[in-house]
Amino acid sequence: MTGFTTGRRALLGGLAATPFLREASAQGNQPYVLGTLFPMSGPNAEYGTAFTAGIQLAMQHIAADNMLRRPLRLQAEDTQALPQQGVIGMTKLVNVDRANYVMVGFTAVSKAVAPVGDRAKTVMVNGGAVGPDLAGLSPFFWNVIPLAHLETQALLPFLVRQRNLKRIALVYVDDPLGDAILGILRTALPAAGGELAGQFSIPRTAQQFAPVAARIRQTRPDAVYIASFGAQQSQIIKQLRDNGVSQPLVSYSAMNIDSVRATAEAEGLIFTTQVTDFAGGDAVTRRFATDFRARFNSDPGTYQVNYYNAARLFGLLAQSLERENAEVNGENLRRALLAGREFDLVGGKGRFDDQGNMSAELQINEIRGGRSVKIG
Amino acid sequence: MIAYLTNLAALAAIFGILASTLNVAVGYAGIFSVAHAVFFGVGAYAGAQIALVLVPDALLAMLVAGLISGALSLCLALPALRVRGEYFVAASLGLQMMATTLFSEWKSVTGGIGGLTGIPRPHVFGVEVGTLPLALAALGLILLATAALMRGAFGRTLRSIRDAESAAEALGKNVAAAKALAVAFACAGAGVAGALFALHMQFVNVESFNLDQSVLIMAMVIIGGTGTLLGPLVGAVILLSLPAGLAFLPFIPATEVGAVQQMVYGLAMTLLMIFRPAGLVGDLSRGKSMA
Amino acid sequence: MLFVQLLLQGLQVGAIYALTAAGFALIFGATRIFHFAHGSSFALAGYVFIFAMQAGWPWWMGGLAATLTATLFGIGVFWFVYRPIQRHEGSFFTVFVAAFGVGIVVQNLIGMTAGRGFASVDTPLSRAVEVLPDVFLAQVFWVAVGVAAILFAALTLFLTRHNAGVALRALHQNPDLLRAYGLSSTRLSLLAFALGSALAAPAAMVTAMTSGMNEAIGHQVMLISMAATIVGGVGSLRGAALAGLMLGVAESVALNFVDTQWAEAVSFLVLFAFIIFRPSGIFGIAQAR
What we know:
CATH superfamily of the largest domain in chain A: Response regulator
Low-confidence stretches of chain B: 284-291
Strand content of chain B: under 5%
Oligomer: heterotrimer
Mean pLDDT of chain A: 84
Strand order of the largest sheet of chain B: 1-2
Distance between the termini of chain B: 46 Å
């Protein structure tokens, strides 16, 4: 009993002491701290791994180019995509690690940590979540990903006019993202000349979709829109295909992960992402694509691009602040962002609006032979 | 650092309330519920709605949240308390799963998976206060009430139910009433914790009130030691600070940090149970078989 | 036609639930241990099968490897986790917390080694074809239902004819009596864990082919198994299997009447109703009170 108590005290004491030690020793050439709040364990961990890869590459490039006078340090906090863990991680990043810049993903986590960052005036950048209520959360909350409603709007004319897919059934997780997509299909789809054939809300934890497939078949759709994320996406695709839904499947950028591309049933899946021309793009894009393949031995996806851009954006903003000898803090970063507005990022020029949302060109992709191919 | 520790301490106090109140049901009355997060959630939504719609008064929010949770638990517990042991565990499990679906679907009140945002910071009589003192005060009050209750006749009745329900019944104790009262007290406490949680996080969504959370609270009680006043608190502090503490380990590669943390966490739970099955504060000689 | 379709799909899922639930009930009946890590056996078996298939092994070798993994894991958890706790007369929930910890470790171990996210076995067996107007059926349906039926027949034979099987059945009624007759209850417990965990393997293999696996799947399996054991009546293998089948069918057929988001809640509504109105379960031997 006593052994345990002392052990615990020592542990907690040790916890309390570590950060102070670090602060004291690193005063001189203290690194800039890039914090991340991603799911690194649990069913959504695939995203956390993908997000981090983009940031790691950007940090490598920033260091290689000697863009900044001070080094960079990555501080990862696992959120498991849960808001409560997110807030704990965010308070730690802000108060203990004194993060200069925090990158987040996932709608619920983003919404939960936004007040913390807002109070501390710490910049938070989202490159993964596409819930439309993420715009304007705080002056310090920026998005480097076009939010979902834009993606869906871009897709509808293509489906109706070019592919003649008019009746669309929606399978969606009933969160702000799914809600937004449902809203757009209800309003913009008729406007584009189509029709919402049916809507099927599913719990986030659901695993069995064969019965849902039966219900979908009954509505006789021309295409099925899937609005989910993580491991569930592949499960839906496989089970719809297995259970007699042969119509084209369509979706948004969350499909751009390895496990979906590797699912045999995902062949022919149509989804939107922002424009990335790895072969013929500008120098930044080409360098990203080449080095990404060299370092991770796989093709980069949208998320790696977005978070590479998020980290690169920090490099660019901090560089301009260092030039004018201004402190790299939230307010100055925001000032630099609004002063610059346009930045050379992967995929071309990234333009930011007053709220810090980046707009980007969208493209439509299809999965062919396990690779995502641009079709529109 | 101070702000970080304050935040952790406030969460620890809130989970301390949850664990101590669950302990009243588990440790003193022998009622094993894996639905404590349901009442935590009910309280959180009630508190959040009061703060959003009426006034951000913490005391009012806590009071109403406690009342609603307590009353609701009575309605649900009365039929369910007819069964014992594993059956009650399973009943509470069913309740937890249904409540999770309801929390996700009843959007006008709970905001669904999107949750409720923009909950104002807690005030007391118009003055903004931190969550930590509030939570500590609530925790202190609840512990005092628990201690007082358990020392009295009510406590003896509960313990006799836990140790031998049929015997207690035969001795003329009103088993049903005592059990119901214990459950109502425990769930009202969870409601209070919920209101505090909503005001502290300024954001609530269904993911904080699912089965995992219920199991976590249960684990806090078991790891700390059931039927002791201090045990659940120790359990809450350990289970909250363990992942947070592991976050300070510098040598774990960034992409594996979550998995390694979780594995250490899981391993710690298992090992603690193997080597201290009665909990850290628990009395080994009194560990008794439930099944 | 929708009803027929949903019923068939429900039977397929129900057969899987029945297998895992029967394993859980067998273990619980014989050892009185609520084996919460049962879902981990399931997940491990499924992933081993997926790995084996990806490595190009014949299916029966993959199946053997998966069954062996599940069995060894079940025995291991009993020997290294439950047995020490039971020696301390650990309470119900001590076992629960310990098993929950094991579940977390296994889930993250799978995540680190097998990659995080979706994994499945690609097979034409799971591809459904139209057998009646608007009714689709895949060959895997017959696999699931057939395997479940054969295994139950074999298990019933074993439990009624074989000495060890009879002892196993007797164990949950009175462990002391059995010990008095000189049969080691530890050895019988080991047998129960081995058999019960092995039952999860075929279910996991079918799941790997149909709905696919993710690292967190064990959690759901554990819930369903537990619910089925209660609904079926604690201690009744037949009841657990039937209840598992019923939960699968209920979850699926419910979509004939309600919207899709309520499917999951239906199973637990059934569970809740059973506990309130018929706590002894379908074939309950012991009353709850």
